[in-house]
Write a structure and sequence with these properties.
Layout: E1 2-6, H1 11-22, E2 26-31, H2 39-48, E3 61-63, E4 70-74, H3 80-90, E5 94-97, H4 106-109, H5 111-131, E6 136-142, H6 166-185, E7 189-194, E8 197-198, H7 207-216, E9 221-224, E10 230-231, E11 234-235, H8 236-248, E12 271-276, E13 282-283, H9 284-295, E14 301-304, H10 319-325, H11 333-348
Parallel strand pairs: 1-2, 1-5, 2-4, 5-6, 6-7, 7-12, 8-11, 9-14
Antiparallel strand pairs: 3-4, 10-13
Helix pairs in contact: 1-8, 3-5, 5-6, 7-9, 9-11
Amino acid sequence: MRVLVTGTAGFIGFHLAKRLLKRGDEVIGIDNINDYYDVNVKYGRLKELGFKESSFEFGKRYISKKYPNHIFYRVDLADKEAVEKIFKEHKPNRVCNLAAQAGVRYSLKNPDAYIHSNIVGFMNILEACRNYEVEHLAYASSSSVYGLNETMPFSVHHNVDHPISLYAATKKSNELMAHTYSYLYNIPTTGLRFFTVYGPWGRPDMALFLFTKAILEDRAIDVFNYGKMKRDFTYIDDIIEGVVRVIDNIAKPNPNWSGKNPDPASSKAPYRVYNIGNGSPVELMDFIRAIEKALNKEAKKNYLPIQPGDVPATWANTSSLEKDLGYKPNTPIQKGVDEFIKWYREFYRV
């Protein structure tokens, strides 16, 4: 297939592009390579995908030296003209939108970035899918959409109308926008609510990266909510397996859907939403112990109250993913943390 993947210099997009390329798909990658976090990690990912360039011009086409079936463009999704030009030239069969302004906490400091990328950018993707007859659009949502919901585990059949960060609100908006386009234009769309993704080539703004760096540098780590947090940590390989299965299985209307008792996870339109999580929440202190074990070094801890926008716990109900796609993530936390630490030491030579 010809698959357009946005965010290929990002954590999940990079791994997805690599997986699709290895199985023989043609991949058109898009990323704006912004400096929200260390761009050296982004350039490192692009280098792994076969791009040796030290800089990338906006709008220029680059062909991978490693995968001849991989083309990359540095493009901002909010640039409607540039996005449309790529769709017009390449006419992708499937699209996976993983490009977004990420991070719950950063959305409190720079809300405009989230509207620019996650709303305007996503709108441009939807319009391009409509105009160029894309067979299926898969896109990243987030476990953060569950917000104030305290019913555990989080189910795609739950109502998610109470987000507590602008980041979460933009992801909920993406699901609503996608449903509208599925209904009006019969575009199959599938939203993927990711639960705390971690692993090699991970994001430097996330806990595993921050904790590892601080422990190795003999600095204290910030432990929020005094350690009373739970997260459904999901290893990157498990996430990618789920994403690939979703891309391959085009969303269909739910024949049993009723407007009198509407199911939020499906529709009379070709629209679906899935959780992709491990289904096994891990206590934050147990997560820290796994890092300490992998590094063979104890962390100095700075205990702090919970931060605005954070939720105390996440836990994915993946029954819909299992039922429809026959898949359930299952990588144990220690194995995943060990793989990350191995990559971190190699990449930073520490």
